[in-house]
Description:
Elements: H1 2-17, E1 22-25, E2 31-33, E3 41-44, H2 51-55, H3 59-67, E4 72-74, H4 77-91, H5 109-120, H6 124-128, H7 149-163, E5 171-175, H8 181-190, E6 193-198, H9 201-213, E7 220-224, E8 234-240, H10 251-261, E9 262-275, H11 287-294, H12 304-313, E10 316-323, H13 325-341, H14 343-350, H15 352-370, E11 374-383
Parallel strand pairs: 1-3, 5-6, 5-8, 6-7, 8-9
Antiparallel strand pairs: 1-2, 3-4, 9-11, 10-11
Amino acid sequence: MFVQSRLSAWTAGIRQQITLPLRIELWNGQAFDFSSEAPRVTIRIPNPSAARYLLSPSLSNLGTAYVEGAIEVTGKAKDMIRIVNALAHSTLHSDGKLSRIVRQFTHSRKKDAQAIRYHYDVSNEFYQQFLDPRMVYSCAYFEGGEEDLASAQLKKIDHILAKIRLQRGQSLLDIGCGWGALVIRAAQKYGARCVGITLSENQYALARERVAEAGLEHLVEIRLQDYRDVRGSFDRITSVGMFEHVGVKHLAEYFAIIHRLLADDGVAMNHGITSTDPDSGETPYGGGEFIDKYVFPQGELAHLGQVLKAMQQGQLEAYDVENLRRHYAKTCAIWTDNFEARAEQVKAIAGDKRFRIWHVYLAGCAYAFDQDWISLYQIVCGKAGRHPQALPWSRRYMYAADLA
C-alpha cells in the first residue's frame, strides 16, 4: 500500500506539470494515463519492488530497468526516449549525478581493444540489420536532406575524400576503418594506396573479404592494429568515428601521432562526436552513465574547443571545421527505424537483452543529437606552420559537381 500511495502521489504531481501520451500499468491491474490521447508508450511495473525505477526516472535508471527486464516497455523507441526525458526533466534536479558530469577513464592498448571488441564484435550480421549495404557506421551526409541512407553514406565518404583533396596514387591511412567502405571507395575512385586499421576482429575479417571481392588487394591493406603502433608516412589520413575511444587526456597524444604519420604537405581529417558542454560533460539525466555501462565502455566526448586545443598541442593546424549534428540526428533516426523494422531478426541474432540495449541506445542518440546534447564535427587539418599548398584558396573544391 505504501508503494502504491507513493506512485499515486508521484503520478498526480506529473499530471500537474505536463501531459504525455503515456500509460503506466501496475502489478495489481491499476493504470494511470497522462493524457487524453491514446498512449504511445506503456510502462508496466510487474511488482512493487520495480516501482523505485519509476519514482526516480533518470535515463540511467529507467534504461537499466528496461534492459534488465525489471520493467516492461512497449512503444516506438523515439517515443520512449522523448517521454522518459520529459519525466526526468519534470521530476529530477539536473545537477549532481544527473548533471553533465565529467568522467575520464584510464586508457591502454588492452583496455581500448577490449572496449572496441565489446561494442563492435557483436556480429557482422547484427550490424547488417540496420546499417546501409556498405555498413558505414558513422554519421551520413544528407546533401539535400532527402537522400536515402545508402546514398547519404556514399555522399559522406565522397565528401571526406573531396575535403582532403585525395589525388590519384596517393597513400591514405584510415584510422578505425570499420568494414572498409572508405578505403575501398578511395581505391576505386582515385587509385589510392590505402591502409585501414581496426581493433575489431569481426570488422577486420569482413573488410578483408570485401577488399578481395572488389579486386583491390593490390591497393588496400586491412590491418588489425592499434593506431599507436602504425609506422610510416601517408599523404592523407582520415579518422571517422574513432577518436571518441581515445580518451580526453590522450587527445594531444593522438593528434601528435597523426602529425608523425602525416607527410609534410599532407592533409588529415578527423570526423567525430563531441560534447556540447563547455566542460566536456556527459549527456544529462544519466544518459552517459547508461551508455558507458551497456554500450560504449570507456568512451569519452570532448568539447570542440578542447579538440581544437589538443589538435594544436599535437602540432596540427585546423583548416576547416564543419558541424554535421543534424545529419547525425537523421542518421540515428533511420538506424532506429531499420532496427525496429527488423526486431525479430535482431533478437534472433543477439538476444532480447542486447536488442533492448540497442533499441534505446539508437533512439537516445538521435534524441541527443537533435537536442544539441552532443554534436559531430569534421575537422580538416595539416601540419602546423606550413603552407597548405595541397588545398585551394576557397572551399569551393569540396562541392564540385564531379565529386558529388
